[in-house]
C-alpha cells in the first residue's frame, strides 16, 4: 500500500464513483420521490449550506445558524466528558478497591442506552443547550471512563517494576508510565465517545430543540421535503466521516510510537 | 481465590447499595427536591410494579420483538456478506471504501428517513436497528475469516475438498468466535436503536413510547424505572451471550488465553 | 556491601528459594548460575525490593532492604518491556535521573554521556522500536550506568540477543563497570558466561534454590573473548561449574528414568 503511495490509495477508491453512478441511474429509473437522485441531493446541499459569500468559505446563513450550535454542543460535551472520563478512569484503574466498589454502577451506567437520557433529562431540566450538553456528557463518558480504567489497570508489570527500581515518584509513575501506557486504550475510548456524541447531538436535536442540524432534519421530514432529508443525512454522514478521520489522524500523530512499535514486534 | 471473588462481589454490592442509600437520604432530607427527582425507593417500587404490569409488558414485548427480528435480519445479511468479503480478498479491497463512508453515518439520522419510508412501525424500527447493527457483525466476520489458519485450509484442500466444503468445515468454524463477538456487540446496538427510534418517531407501543407517555405525564419515576429495565435487559443479554461464547468456544478462549 | 541471610521465599505452596546465604564485596562481579526454575529471578527481585521475601534478610551496606533502594539499578532480560516505547533512548536514560535532583540540562548531559559510553551517542534520538535487540539492551545498560548505582543487578541481560552481540555486551559491561567501580550481581543460566564475566560464580540448585557452590574465578584481567576462553584455567573452571550445575540435572534425569 505504501509503495504505491498516494495515487495507489486513490485508485483503491474506484468503487466510490461507480457506486454513485449506479445510485444515480437507479434513482432515475425508479423515479420515486422518496429516493431522489444523488445529483439533486448535491445541488440541494449546495443551495442550503454552501452558496454563501466567499468571505465565509461559501457558508450560508442557514449553515452557520444550524452548524454552529450543533458542533458547539458536540465538541463541548465531548471534551468535558473526555476530561472527566480520563480523570475518573485513572482513579478507578489505579485502585483495585475503588474499581470493585464502583463496578456494578459503571456496568449499569454503560448499559443504559444513552438516547434514553434525552427524554429523561428533558423532563427533569429545561429544554435548551445546557441540558443537551448534560445529555452528551453523561451519555458519552462511559467509553472513555471504562477504557481509561482498563488501560491503567493493565499496564505491563515490567514497566511498573522498572519505575519502582529507579525510584520514580508517584506523580512520575502516573504521568510518565501509566498514562502513556494506557494512551492507546484512552484514545480508543475517546473515538467511540466522539461518534456517540454525534449520535446524541442528533437525537437531542430531533427530540427537543429549536436549532441545530437535527432540528433542521426533523423540520424537513415533517414537511415531506424528501430531498432535504437526504441532504441532511448526507451532511451528517460527511460530518461523521470527517470527525472520525480527523480523530484517526490525530491519534496516529500522538500514538506514533504505539503503532510503529506494534508493527515491529 | 474464592475469597477474592467474594470480596469483589461484596464490594460491588456495597458500592451499589451505598449509592442508592445516599440518593435516598438526599431525597428524604430535602437535599434533592423529590418533586424534581423522585426517591430511589419510589423508583424501585415503580420498577417492581412495572415487572408485573400488563400494559408495560406489552410495550416491552413490542420493543423486544423489533429487537429480535432486527438482530435476526442483521445476522442473516451481515454474516454471509462478511464471509464473502473475507474469502474473496479483491471484493473486500473494493468494498472497503464504501464501508468506511457508510459506517460513520450516525444511524439515528436515518430515523426521519425511515419514518417516511415505512408505514409499519415494526419495519421502521427494524430498518434503523439493522443498519446500525450490521457493521459490528460484518467487520468481525471479515476479520474472523481473515484470521483463519491457512494451514488448516490447505490441509483440507490437500485431501481433495472443494472450496465450498473448505468454507463450511474450516472457515466458518474458525471465524465463529469472532462472528459471535460481533453479534454480541450488535445485540447492544440494536437495543439502543430500537428504543431511540421509538422515542423519536413515536407510535402505538414500545418501551420508548411508554417513556414518552410517562414524560408527558411528568412521571419521572416511571421514566427512570423503565429505563432501568432497558439497562438491565442489555446487561442480561450481554452476560448471556458472553457465557454462551465461553461455553461454545472453549477451544478458542484457551488458545487466546493471556492474549486479550 | 550486599549480604543475604537465610533468604527464603514461597509463592503460596511453591518454595522458590530456600535459605540462601551470600555476601558480595564492594567492586566484585558475582555471577549466579543455576538450572532453569532455580528461583534466580525470585532472588533478584528480593534483592531489588520488588518482592518481600517470606523469610531471611537482605542487607545492603548493612541496612535491611525494605522498598527499592536508591543505590541499586536493574538490567532486565526483556529489554522490549523494560524500555518505554513512548520515549526516545535519551529520554529513557534520563528519566530515572529525576530522582537524583538534577535539572533537565544536567540529566540530558548525563544520559548522553552514558549513551556515548555504550556506543550509542549517535542514536540518542531513536526510539526503542527503531533499534535492534542488542541496541535496546545497550540503552538499558546506559540507563543503569547513568543512574550511578553502587550495585547493579542483571537478570539474564544477554539472554535474548544473538551470540556475537552477546560477546560485545559482556565486554562492554565488564569495561564500564570496572571504570565506575560498580559492584555487579549477574544472573544467568549460561555456565560459560558466568565464568567469563564473574570474579566469583555462585551455583544455585533447582527449586527450592539454595547455594550449592561458590567458586572464585582467578583469571587474569582484562578478559578477552578469545584468549581468556582458551586458558587452561578457564576451561577447568567452566568444567567445574558445569559439573556442579549439571550434577543436579543428571540426578534428576536418573530419577525420571527409574520412576
What do these coordinates show?
The complex is a heterotrimer of chains A (265), B (260) and C (259). With 265 residues, chain A is an all-alpha fold. Chain A is 80% helix and 0% strand. The longest helix of chain A is centred in the C-terminal third of the chain and has 38 residues, at 170-207. Chain B folds into two domains: 1-34; 38-255, MetI-like (MetI-like fold). Chain C has 259 residues and is α/β, with parallel strands linked by helices. Chain C folds into two domains: 2-71 and 150-258, Rossmann fold (3-Layer(aba) Sandwich); 79-148, no CATH class. Helix content of chain C is 39%, strand content 23%. In chain C, the strands form two sheets. Chain C has a six-stranded mixed β-sheet, sandwiched between helices. In chain C, a hairpin with a 6-residue loop joins strand 9 (200-204) and strand 10 (211-216). Chain C starts with a strand and ends with a helix. The interface between A and B is large, with 52 and 57 residues.
CATH class of the largest domain in chain B: Mainly Alpha
Helix content of chain A: over 70%
How many structural domains of chain B?
Answer: 2
CATH level 3 topology of the largest domain in chain B: MetI-like fold
The Cα radius of gyration of chain A reads 23 Å
Which structural category do the helix and sheet elements of chain A fall into?
mainly alpha
For this structure, the CATH topology of chain A is MetI-like fold
Radius of gyration of chain B: 23 Å
Query: What is the overall silhouette of chain B?
Result: globular
The CATH architecture of chain A comes to: Orthogonal Bundle
**What's the shape of chain A?**
globular
The helix-strand sequence of chain B is HHHHHHHHHHH
Number of domains of chain A: 1
Strand fraction of chain A equals: under 5%
CATH class bucket of chain A? Mainly Alpha
Poorly predicted sequence stretches spanning 5 or more consecutive residues of chain B: none
Keywords:
heterotrimer; A: 265 residues; mainly alpha; MetI-like fold; B: 260 residues; 2 domains; 82% helix; 0% strand
Give a quick rundown of the structure.
The complex is a heterotrimer of chains A (265), B (260) and C (259). With 260 residues, chain B is mainly α. Chain B has 11 helices and no strands.
Write the layout of secondary structure elements.
The complex is a heterotrimer of chains A (265), B (260) and C (259).
Chain A: H1 5-11, H2 15-30, H3 38-49, H4 61-94, H5 96-111, H6 117-124, H7 129-153, H8 157-165, H9 170-207, H10 213-222, H11 226-254, H12 256-264
Helix pairs in contact in A: 3-11, 4-5, 4-7, 4-9, 5-7, 6-7, 7-9, 9-10, 9-11, 10-11
Chain B: H1 2-28, H2 40-51, H3 54-87, H4 89-102, H5 111-117, H6 121-146, H7 150-158, H8 163-201, H9 207-216, H10 220-248, H11 250-255
Chain C: E1 2-11, E2 14-24, E3 29-33, H1 40-47, E4 55-60, E5 63-64, E6 72-75, H2 79-82, H3 89-94, H4 104-117, H5 133-146, E7 151-155, H6 163-180, E8 183-188, H7 191-197, E9 200-204, E10 211-216, H8 227-230, H9 232-258
Parallel strand pairs in C: 3-8, 3-9, 6-7, 7-8
Antiparallel strand pairs in C: 1-2, 1-4, 4-5, 9-10
Domain ABC transporter (chain C): 2-231
InterPro entries (chain C): AAA+_ATPase, ABC_transporter-like_ATP-bd, ABC_transporter-like_CS, ABC_transporter_ATP-bind, P-loop_NTPase
Pfam families (chain C): ABC_tran
Amino acid at each position: 500500500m505504501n509503495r504505491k503511495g498516494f495515487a495507489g490509495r486513490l485508485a483503491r477508491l474506484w468503487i466510490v464513483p461507480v457506486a454513485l453512478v449506479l445510485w444515480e441511474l437507479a434513482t432515475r429509473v425508479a423515479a420515486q420521490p422518496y429516493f431522489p437522485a444523488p445529483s439533486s441531493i448535491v445541488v440541494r446541499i449546495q443551495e442550503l449550506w454552501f452558496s454563501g459569500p466567499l468571505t465565509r468559505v461559501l457558508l450560508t446563513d442557514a449553515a452557520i445558524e444550524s452548524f454552529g450550535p450543533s458542533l458547539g454542543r458536540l465538541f463541548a460535551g465531548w471534551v468535558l466528558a473526555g476530561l472527566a472520563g480520563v480523570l475518573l478512569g485513572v482513579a478507578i484503574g489505579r485502585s483495585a478497591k475503588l474499581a470493585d466498589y464502583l463496578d456494578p454502577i459503571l456496568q449499569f451506567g454503560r448499559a443504559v442506552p444513552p438516547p434514553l437520557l434525552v427524554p429523561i433529562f428533558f423532563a427533569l431540566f429545561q429544554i435548551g443547550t445546557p441540558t443537551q450538553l448534560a445529555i452528551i456528557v453523561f451519555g458519552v463518558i462511559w467509553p472513555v471512563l471504562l477504557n481509561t480504567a482498563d488501560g491503567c489497570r493493565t499496564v505491563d508489570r515490567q514497566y511498573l517494576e522498572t519505575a519502582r527500581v529507579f525510584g520514580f515518584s508517584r506523580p512520575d509513575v502516573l504521568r510518565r508510565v501509566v498514562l502513556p501506557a494506557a494512551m492507546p486504550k484512552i484514545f480508543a475510548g475517546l473515538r467511540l465517545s466522539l461518534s456517540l456524541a454525534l449520535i446524541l447531538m442528533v437525537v437531542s436535536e430531533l427530540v427537543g430543540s429549536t436549532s441545530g442540524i437535527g432540528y433542521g432534519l426533523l423540520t424537513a421530514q415533517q414537511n415531506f421535503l424528501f430531498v432535504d432529508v437526504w441532504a441532511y443525512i448526507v451532511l451528517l454522514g460527511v460530518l461523521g466521516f470527517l470527525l472520525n478521520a480527523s480523530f484517526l489522524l490525530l491519534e496516529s500523530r500522538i500514538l506514533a510510537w504505539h503503532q510503529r512499535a506494534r508493527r515491529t514486534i | 481465590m474464592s475469597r477474592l471473588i467474594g470480596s469483589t462481589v461484596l464490594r460491588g454490592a456495597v458500592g451499589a447499595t451505598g449509592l442508592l442509600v445516599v440518593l435516598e437520604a438526599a431525597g428524604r432530607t430535602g437535599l434533592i427536591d423529590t418533586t424534581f427527582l423522585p426517591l430511589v425507593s419510589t423508583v424501585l417500587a415503580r420498577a417492581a410494579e412495572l415487572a408485573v404490569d400488563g400494559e408495560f409488558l406489552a410495550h416491552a414485548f413490542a420493543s423486544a420483538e423489533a429487537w429480535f427480528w432486527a438482530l435476526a435480519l442483521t445476522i442473516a445479511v451481515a454474516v454471509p456478506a462478511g464471509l464473502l468479503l473475507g474469502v474473496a480478498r479483491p471484493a473486500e479491497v473494493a468494498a472497503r471504501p464504501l464501508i468506511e463512508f457508510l459506517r460513520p453515518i450516525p444511524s439515528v439520522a436515518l430515523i426521519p428517513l425511515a419514518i417516511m419510508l415505512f408505514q409499519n412501525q415494526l419495519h421502521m424500527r427494524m430498518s434503523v436497528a439493522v443498519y446500525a447493527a450490521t457493521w459490528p457483525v460484518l467487520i468481525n466476520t471479515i476479520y474472523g475469516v481473515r484470521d483463519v489458519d491457512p494451514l488448516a485450509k490447505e490441509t483440507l484442500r490437500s485431501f481433495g475438498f472443494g472450496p465450498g466444503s473448505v468454507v463450511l468445515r474450516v472457515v466458518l468454524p474458525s471465524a465463529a468466535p469472532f462472528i459471535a463477538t460481533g453479534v454480541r456487540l450488535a445485540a447492544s446496538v440494536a437495543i439502543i436503536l430500537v428504543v431511540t427510534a421509538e422515542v423519536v418517531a413515536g407510535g402505538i407501543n414500545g418501551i420508548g413510547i411508554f417513556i414518552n407517555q410517562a414524560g408527558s405525564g411528568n412521571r419521572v419515576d416511571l421514566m427512570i424505572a423503565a429505563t432501568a429495565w432497558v439497562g438491565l435487559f442489555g446487561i442480561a443479554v450481554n452476560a448471556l451471550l458472553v457465557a454462551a461464547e465461553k461455553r461454545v468456544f472453549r477451544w478458542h478462549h484457551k488458545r487466546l488465553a493471556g492474549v486479550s | 556491601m550486599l549480604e543475604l541471610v537465610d533468604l527464603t521465599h514461597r509463592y503460596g505452596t511453591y518454595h522458590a528459594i530456600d535459605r540462601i546465604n551470600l555476601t558480595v564485596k564492594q567492586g566484585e562481579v558475582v555471577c549466579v548460575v543455576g538450572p532453569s526454575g532455580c528461583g534466580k529471578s525470585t532472588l533478584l527481585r528480593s534483592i531489588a525490593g520488588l518482592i518481600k521475601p517470606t523469610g531471611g534478610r537482605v542487607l545492603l551496606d548493612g541496612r535491611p532492604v525494605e522498598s527499592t533502594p536508591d543505590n541499586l539499578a536493574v538490567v532486565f532480560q526483556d529489554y522490549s518491556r523494560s524500555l518505554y516505547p513512548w520515549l526516545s533512548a535519551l529520554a529513557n536514560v534520563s528519566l530515572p535521573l529525576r530522582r537524583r535532583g538534577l535539572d533537565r540540562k544536567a540529566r540530558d548531559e548525563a544520559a548522553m554521556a552514558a549513551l556515548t559510553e555504550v556506543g550509542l551517542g549517535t542514536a540518542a534520538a531513536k526510539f526503542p522500536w527503531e533499534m535492534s535487540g542488542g541496541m535496546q539492551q545497550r540503552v538499558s545498560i546506559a540507563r543503569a550506568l547513568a543512574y550511578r548505582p553502587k550495585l547493579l543487578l542483571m537478570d539474564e541481560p544477554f539472554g535474548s540477543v544473538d551470540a556475537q552481540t552477546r560477546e560485545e555486551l559482556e565486554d562492554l559491561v565488564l569495561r564500564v563497570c570496572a571504570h565506575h567501580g560498580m559492584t555487579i550481581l549477574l544472573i544467568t543460566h549460561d555456565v560459560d558466561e558466568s565464568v567469563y564475566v564473574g570474579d566469583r560464580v555462585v551455583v544455585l540448585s533447582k527449586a527450592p534454590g539454595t547455594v550449592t557452590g561458590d567458586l572464585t574465578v582467578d583469571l587474569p584481567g582484562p578478559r578477552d573473548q578469545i584468549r581468556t576462553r582458551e586458558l587452561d584455567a578457564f576451561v577447568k573452571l567452566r568444567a567445574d561449574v558445569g559439573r556442579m550445575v549439571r550434577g543436579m540435572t543428571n540426578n534428576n534425569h536418573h530419577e525420571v528414568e527409574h520412576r
